[in-house]
Amino acid sequence: MFCYQCEQTAKGTGCTVQGVCGKMPEIAALQDLLLYSLMGLSQVAVEGRKVGVSDNDVNVFTVKAAFSTLTNVDFDPDRFMDLIRESITLREKLKTQVGSAGGEVNWSEGPATFEPETSLDGLVKQGEQVGIKTYPGDNPDILSLKHTVLYGIKGVSAYSDHALVLGQEDFADCLENRGMTTTLDEMTSGLGDESLDGFTISKAEEDTLSQPAGIQ
Q: Mean pLDDT across the stretch 134-139?
């Protein structure tokens, strides 16, 4: 496991054996896998908005599921297994809606095609392949930007979930969905060979930084 999303993280660098918060490695892997599945769901949701398709169940679920990966929220493995499976069910339902509206739904690989294992052990093994340490590329600045977006989305989702409890919502432009896809590819799209605060990134490097290594 590797987690450094809170200020209490071990040695100030990251928890790798067990979370200071009490989170065990299997939970960390399930949370990573849930985020990976949300990236796939968000890819479809973003495509849907391009053709006028927005599913409120997807919006609410994205907020709830991202919030569940925060520190000390809930460490029940069965809950994460259910959330991972629900994300796939919603993703495939949304693909049908988006495809019917003329949107792009044909991904050849990546989180939009991810299929979860049926057992807890199988899901944990899949999660170990898609944690934040698996993003390809050696450029720490781009990786830190992606991690910042990811953790920011978790925080936004927490507030959005609280707002939903109070009967307030605004998903006109669901930031959570866009943020999840940003961690996949939008952070580097269009950079080409332009300078980014002191360093340059080529188009070839951009391609290697586009998304987690994925599940083999």
A: 67
